[in-house]
Amino acid sequence: MTDPKKQPTQTEAEAAVRTLIEWAGDDPDREGLLETPARVARSYKELFAGYAIDPTAYLERTFEEVGGYDSLVILHDIPVVSFCEHHMLPFLGKAHVGYLPRDRVVGISKLARVVQGFARRLQIQEKLTAQVAGAIDDILKPKGVGVVIVSEHSCMTMRGVNTPGSSLTTSHLLGEVRDDPRTRQEFFELVRNGG
């Protein structure tokens, strides 16, 4: 991550956008583009908000009163909005996050926040999938974790091979979700049928 002391200013970010507009062949001083550099800089601040937070912190408040619950917990269809680190184009999709609790659970909104926190950075989907699973495993110490992300990547659909409608599926399994065939099968069936 960038050293905050060396982080470019808003003015420098806007100047970079002006340069890109000129490089593309347009006039950044024409009426329709006058406010574009400021808008782009503000939107990037929001789209890359994951750099300003520690997504694992969302998992630190847990609940131990689970009434004996010891089966999979899966949150489906968490929106994924991220940017390919190779082309800085968006990839959009859904994450399905599950874990097999050992002795505590976390509020379900926290699972979505972890996904969003890691997604709001320059990413590759494979790394994002592993980061989410790793964070849940490190903090909650469950018996197992499973994360599946399915996304459409603009770097493939808008340019290059131009394949609109294609999607990439990644999964990262840890503990019993990976090692126990019955738990792994149950996880994938619940992901497939529950969303």
The proportion of residues forming helix, as a percent range, comes to: 25-40%
Task: Note the beta-strand portion.
Answer: 15-25%
The coarse silhouette is: elongated
Can you summarize the main beta sheet? Answer: 5 strands, mixed
> Which parts are unreliable, with pLDDT below 50 for 5 consecutive residues or more?
none
- How far the N terminus sits from the C terminus, by CA atoms, comes to 34 Å
Work out the helix count: 7
Element string (H = helix, E = strand): HHEEEEHEHEHEHH
The order of strands across the largest sheet is 5-2-3-6-7
- Mean of pLDDT: 94
What Rg is obtained from the alpha carbons, in whole angstroms? 20 Å
The count of DSSP E runs of length 2 or more, i.e. the number of strands, is: 7
Secondary-structure content class: alpha+beta
Care to describe what's here?
The chain has 195 residues and is of the alpha+beta class. 39% of the residues lie in helices and 24% in strands. The protein is built from seven helices and seven strands, in the order ααββββαβαβαβαα. The chain has helices spanning 10-24, 36-47, 108-119, 125-140, 154-157, 176-179, 181-194, and strands spanning 62-63, 73-84, 90-100, 105-106, 122-123, 144-153, 168-175. β2 and β3 form a beta hairpin. α1 crosses α2 and α3 (108-119) packs across α4. The longest helix is centred in the C-terminal third of the chain and has 16 residues, at 125-140. The radius of gyration is 20 Å and the shape is elongated. The two termini are 34 Å apart. The relative contact order is 0.14. The model has no long low-confidence stretch (mean pLDDT 94).
